[in-house]
Amino acid sequence: MEVVQALYLCVVTGICALTDMKERKIKNCWLKAAVLGALFFMAVRGDWHMVLDGLTIMILTFAVLYPLYLLRMMGAGDVKLMCVAGLYIGWKKPLVFWAVTGVLCAIEALCKLAYYRNVKKRLLYFWNYIHCLYVSKSPKAYGMPDSRQETIGLALPVFCGVFSWIFVVYIMK
Prior knowledge:
Layout: H1 2-23, H2 28-45, H3 48-70, H4 76-89, H5 94-116, H6 119-136, H7 155-171
């Protein structure tokens, strides 16, 4: 049953990745389906410790990523998708998921910087943002004007992170 649950997560994150790439939006209906699926699988197994583990990771993920959403450094759908993945993954080697997802996000960011040839502009903007944050002591929304196409969608790296996590936890046992 655990494998079916993990594959369900993989399918849902895959669909979220496709819609994010196509529409630049992660649809809530898929996130709700993932949460309901997780609760269904956990209820069928009667594994309430897994529910507590998953909810703990989900809350910790939210606590870490929500400030980035408030500063507009991440989209709400990205935060919710990471929380949903945390619900499924729980304490079963979450570092594999986080590491793969983080590395792929960094690669995507570097590729976009190279493609748009705006490394210097982005670094100057980021430095100025950090400086203003330090001086004013009050955060403002992060984001350069007219840079929507340059944003990094997290759904594909999350899908790859989930796929890698399934590989490590279930296939490489």
